[in-house]
Amino acid sequence: MAGYQRTVDHVRDYIQHFSLDNCALGSQGYNRVLLQLFGYMGHGKSSLINSCKYVLDDGEYYIYANALASHTSVTFNRTAYPLTDTITIVDNRGCSTFNAYETGEIYAQLGNFIPVNQRVEWTNNYEQMTDRLEDSEMDPNFTDVTIPVFVYSVKKGLAEGEKKETKEFIDNCRKMTGFYPIVVLTHKTCGDFLQAEKEFLLMGVEKVIKIENYTKEDHGRTQGRHKEILNFLYSVLEDVNFQMKYKKNPRKERVQRKKFLLNFLHEREVNQRLEKMQMQNITN
């Protein structure tokens, strides 16, 4: 079954019954696929969750994750929403920028050093972050296959400064998870999605998926929207199946990710101190 030749029901059934045990080498110690959503404030992360639940459950439309149409954020917790017995989608506090200050917290989440269902507090305090990493070793989580999903509304074009930050974020997401982020372009009818798609592909992204979310105001079922949402979830599982064909070591990978994160946090701390010293020299 390829592309849109797959029927909606067949794809939904495949997603609902997907099991890591059925991968080429079995589960290899993993037990859950975690779709970690990231993006700027108000770009449609919560609406994507509601749409996924709506399409997979095939029932009434419910608001599981609060959402606003404006470029503001109503999500402050890292909240998990199970989609199936194996797949969980995680909402996150929206970013105002993807600089080192906010992405440190994101990388900690991608490495599963920060538990789900906790409030997200951006911090650039080096000691606090390293303390939290050490605390995470009390009950380490190395059983999730984490897929980063970058949600971006085409209503707003990427500024030059945002492009550099976003590309660095995309590269580091792969280092933290082994997966390039899947980019989901929302509000596809309200902007130049072709230009947005081109910009993300130039950053190294391998999959850009265009969708129009269902909303409280507009949730009349259409075949096109259902296929878009299911195509997004199916694409995630394609990536999982591909990576799980190769021998994995969840514990070893967690150690490698922790080393990367500690190095990132250290470099951020050094750069912040240098910037502070430069500012002091200027004012003096």
UniProtKB/TrEMBL annotation:
Top-rank taxon, per record: Eukaryota
InterPro entries noted in UniProt: P-loop_NTPase
Name of the featured protein: Uncharacterized protein LOC121398100
